[in-house]
Every structure is written in C-alpha cells, then in structure tokens.
Protein 1
Amino acid sequence: MPRLSRVLSLFSIGLVGAVATGSIAVSAPAVAPQVPDPYYPMDGNVGYDVQHYDIHDTYRFGDGHLSGTTTVTLVPSVRLTSFNLDLLLAVDSVLVDGVEAEFDKPNKHELTVTPPGALPAGTPVEVTVAYQGVPADLDWNGESNWLADDREVVLMNEPHMAAWWFPSNDHPSDKATYDIRVTTAAGREVISNGVRVGRTVDGDQATTHWRMAQPMTTYLAFFAAGDFAIESGRAHGIRYYNAVSEQLGASETKSNLDLMRQSARITAWLQDELGDYPFATTGGVVTGLDVGFALENQSRPTYPANMPLTIVVHEIAHQWFGDSVSVARWRDIWINEGFASYMEWRWREVQGGATTNRTLRDYYSYYKDVRGFWRLNIANPGPALHNLFNTAVYDRGAMTLAALRNKIGRADFRRLLRRWVDVNRADNATSEQFEAMAETVSGKELDRFFQVWLRADGVPPNKDRFGL
Ligand SMILES: [Zn+2]
C-alpha cells in the first residue's frame, strides 16, 4: 500500500489534522451490470480467468518510451465472442492463439479484443498484445503513476499500476503467475518480482528475466531499472535480493543496503509469527526517486530512502496480508493495512519496546477526540484514495486487532492469524470472512465487537474499548 509518509511518525510529528474528514457513500456502478468491483467499475473484466502473464517490455531511458509484447494465458469462464483487457498504452496488434484478432480501444483504459471465432468456455487461449507509448504521459482518472527520471524508473502504486506497462485483467480477484522480461541499456540493472532467471546482453542492450511462480495480483507486479547496488544470497534460511539506488550517493547507498539486509531477518521473524513465508525469495528495493510511500510489491517491496525499520516490517508483513491473502474487493482494504500496521506494533513488543496494549492505549488517547477518525467505516471506506488509504484504515485497523487479541485471548488470536493466512494462501478474502473465522476460532459471538470497531460512527463504548 502506498503508506503515506505523513503518517509514518504519528507521535513524533503529531498530525491531528491529517485524519479522516468523513466517509463517502458509494453509489452503484453505472457502467455495467456486472463488474469485479463497484469502487472502480472500469478495473478488471468478467468472463475469463488469467493463468499467466508473459511480459516482455523494452524501456528507453532518455525519452521514456516503452514498447512491449505480453502474452496473457486465460481461460474463458463463458463462451466469449469478445473480451476486454485493461491497458493505457497504444496497441499495435493482437493475436489470439497466434491468429490475428480485431481490436479496439473504446476509451483510454480498455482494450476490446474480438477473436476470429468465439472462444469456448474452459479452453485456455493465449492472447498476445503488442503495444507502445510513453507511460509518463499517460493518466487515468486523475492518476499519473509512472515514476522515472533520466537514470531510474520504478513501478510502484496501488490500486493502479499495471495499465501503464502491460495489458491485464486489472483487479486483485484475478491472480496469476508471471514471467517478466525487461530490455534496457546494458549498463542498467533491472529488478522485479520473485526469482531472477537470467540476463542476456545483445550489443548495448540487456534483457533481464524474472519469474514469480506464485499467484500475484496485477498491482503488485513491478520492475525497477537504473544504477543499483545489489546484494543477494541466503540468510535466515531465506533467499534474498536487495537493491539500492546509487543515485543516493555512497554513504546513503550503504546505510540503505544495511536496512534492506534486515528484510531476511524480518521475513524469518514473521514466519515464526504467521507460518511459512508465501514466496521463494524476499528482499527490497530502495529507489533514489522522490516518492512519498513504500509499496509491498510481491516478494520485493519498494521504498523511498531512509525509511524506519518498522516500515520494512510493515511491507514484509504485507507479503502475508495483501499479497498472499489478497482483498476480494477494494472495500476490504483494512485486511491489508490494519494487519500490516498491527505487525509493526507486535514487532516493537517482541523487541522489548512498547507492548501492544500500551500502543493501543496510546493510540486511543491520541485519537479519542478526533471526530473524523471514528467517522470512517474502515470495512467500506470508499474509493477516493484519501479514504481508501486513510490513516483510520491503518490505525483503527491495527487497534481493532489489538483489541481483538484482548477479547479472544492471545492463544486464540495467534491461532486465528495463522489459520487466516493458511486457509486463504494465494487466494482472496473479505473482511466478513475474517470476522466469521474469528468467531469460529474463539467460539465467541463478535458481531457487536466488529460493528463498533470497524463500522460504527463513534468511539467504541467503554466495555469494548480495549477488548478487556
Ligand atoms: Zn501498507
């Protein structure tokens, strides 16, 4: 999640004015009778399930031009005479199983493909799209998400990033595996998700190939390219690959590599807390570009320079909460952000810092008179980005979990988190499913508890305040 830098140091900078000002009502989509998500009606498409993305992009530093060919392996869930993909770039050609298909861009965001013959349900097809453009010039719904300068590019955003660099079914509910190949100047490094398969040099160009073999949602796919200091290996039983921009200068490059070296240790600690790490490698990328947030790109989060260690804990906790267990709908965002924020509290506690209950009480004292903080329904905050990523989604979410731990007891709470990531591994889930599992694991009726903590407009009443 874009964790906004303004919320990083809640107590040190004391931002009373930066919290929610109110929730917004979400009206039914006017676009189509069936869309994957009413928050963003143009995101994603119905009628098929993507299995795999084979992306090969070529990126040119200097003018920022990107061209590419992506083969999307998908299985129609119904007989399809045409279907849509999401892509902002201009399209040159589309093949379906190697045969030229008609295509149209009815608007900036959509690519409509009409294959020569109808596609039967249940039979996989390969859709190959060739495209090009200057992603920095592209915007959608007021978002201009491409982040680059003459020496470096890093793709990191949520909920929208994929449409700037490959065609996709752009919604978390359709997860797939990935091969990602990026060709660029041979002097630059290219970092992406998962395992680095190899690199081939052809004249002054090099192609670096990465593979994510576990299902991944579209917004968590990324690459970074530029001048990076790299460290890779194995620590705490886990493979890692870290990269820090050399644009930061020698001293900061070194201190940020030191920070990234903590990734393997934190991954191992989270594994003890939550159960097996969901992916084959860990690590992180620190960009030299000016970005106000970190993002939990799958297996390899991206960070601005000089983050506190707790932000690394937050982003790696997302590998379980958000990346492996992904939101079924964007309204469920607190099951990503509340949980990752809670794990920061838990980390401090086991490191001998403030206990989780101390932090819960401190947050309560801080927020109790902040009207807007309690007004937002964090289990349905609304699609505006200042609501989806509102401070309350993070902090009220973490408070909910800390209070729940008191309410059901530490042993049941630990069982609950471990069961949650186990049952929903590599899948999607909703807030309601978590609430139901909390009741099953604890044997307690928790409707009212979740109502006052997640949804009610107001401070939780005394008896629910700390779950005690
Ligand atoms: Zn987050």
Protein 2
Amino acid sequence: MKLKVGLYKTVTVKDEEKAELEALYKHPDVSEVIILEPGKMHIEIETDNVRFYFDDKLLNKDLVDIVISRSGFSSVPTAKELIKYCRRNGIKVFDNNLTKVNYLINKRADMIKLASAGLPVPKTFLFLRMSQLEEYLNRGVLGFPLIMKQTNTGQGSRVFKVNSLEDIQNILIQYEKKISAFLLQEVVDYQYDLRIIIAGDEYIGCMRRIPREGDFRANFSLGGSVEKFDPSEEIKQAAIKAAQACELLVSGVDILVTKYGKFYVIEANRTPGLEGISKAAGKEIAERVIDFMIKNAD
Ligand SMILES: Nc1ncnc2c1ncn2[C@@H]1O[C@H](COP(=O)(O)OP(=O)(O)O)[C@@H](O)[C@H]1O
Ligand SMILES: [Mg+2]
C-alpha cells in the first residue's frame, strides 16, 4: 500500500532542507507528502471531540497515514498531544521518542546522560548561582578560556568562547538569562568536528565540519563547510552508544577529535538536519534515515 506521509516541521521547509523532502518523494512506499506546518495549524476543542487542522484541512486518516515529526516545536506539550491525537485516530507517528523523553533540546540532561553512560565528554559545569561560579574561579577549579552554551538552543546559536567573568556577565545581560541557563565547558582543541548519523543501532554516515574563518563553531547551519569522513570503529560505536544514552532512534551525534586522536562526545541531536550530510556523504544518507523513520512509525 502506498502511504501519504505528513512531515511535521516547526519552520517552513526551506530549500536547504530539500534532501529529506527528495528522499520522501523518492521512497517506494510513499505516494504523497503533506507538509504540516505548526504556523498553519488550528485546533478545535469540544468534549470528546478534539480536531487538529492544517491549512483548514482536518488531520485524519484520509489526509495522512503516517506523520514524521521533525524539528523544534514551539511547544513540546502541544506536540505531544498532537502525536497522541494522531495515534488515537489511527495515524502512525515517528516521534523519535519525544513523547517518552519530553524534550527536544536539553543539553543539561543530555550531558548527564552521555557522561553517565561512560562516554568521553568535555568536563562540564552547571551553576545555579553566580556565587558558585565565582567561588570555583577563585579556587582555580575553573579557568579561562571556557565554552559557554545555552542549554536549550541548537544550530550553534548561543555557543560562545569566553575569556573572563566579564565576558560571561555580558552574555547574561545581553540575552537576559541567568547563569543556570548555560553550561560551562572545557575547550576542546579539536582537529576534526564530526557529525555522525545513527538510526536504531546502526551507523549511517559521517561528515567532517569545518568552521567558517574566524569562528570556532563548525555547524553547517552557520555556514561551515562539510566533507565526507570515515571515522574509526571506536568512534562509530561511541556514536551509537550516545544515541542510545539519549534515548534516540535517529540522531546526529557531534564528536570532537583532537590531533592526538582523543575524542569527546558533545551532543546527540534529536532532529538532525540531513542536507549537509547528504551533500558530503551522499543522498543515500537521507534516504536511509527517511526509510528508517517510515518503518519505525508507530
Ligand atoms: N567544548 C567545546 N570545545 C570546542 N568547541 C566546541 C565545544 N563545544 C562546542 N564546540 C563547537 O561549537 C559547535 C556547536 O556546539 P554544540 O554543543 O554542538 O551545540 P549546538 O547544539 O548549537 O550545535 C560544535 O560543533 C563545535 O564546533
Ligand atoms: Mg551541535
């Protein structure tokens, strides 16, 4: 049977994301792709009768057979209710364990999960009060430079290199945040910044990301360049373990490798982009991920 697949994305599907759309259209089991944009959603709520609409079309089994939920939702609780609504109405969903894990981006929780699984991670601190940080600096437990990253953002935004307490304070003022919204992390002097795609317990592919000149962040979404990379078996196994530690079915695991070959897992992303990796390592990367998502919708 051919399937109508709904792709649920927070943001309008952009040109830079065409790899995943192409893979969907190309999939032998897919007859139609319907983009479900939260911006075009409305909900009608009555006793025993809740209805989600997209573009004024009722979301039901006539519209889609499967929903793949991707990208950052403006509201995880609402997204969870949407996913449950689909399943109640006979629509299968690939939610990458969102309903189980309850968050999309939480670097604090994920760093704890990665470290607790025994994976090599950069030494990381989270303070609830400035006085705790100052105390650590005074005692020399922490020294500069440090990486400072907001716990609930992605795509390299709000990841900084800081050289003084003043730098930290300026960032807090600029973004009107408390210190508890950030992790402080040892700087890894990396030679390779790798993005590895995992689906289930399988290694799918890897790219190396090279930062734009003047930046230390290698994210593709910040204009970093990409090239195919073949990681060691040890790194592949670490990436699989990282995805599992963060309870992900599909994941984009970021690993930094030093010139001495030592490596650090820095995060496991829940909604990895497929464009950069498909460009670097081939279209079959997006195709295999999309195939996995379709087969694992439930
Ligand atoms: N501890 C670190 N040392 C050196 N560079 C880092 C460190 N943490 C992050 N980076 C750089 O910043 C990029 C973005 O950081 P990351 O933790 O992956 O957050 P995001 O979710 O925004 O991608 C990484 O790909 C890497 O290039
Ligand atoms: Mg990253």
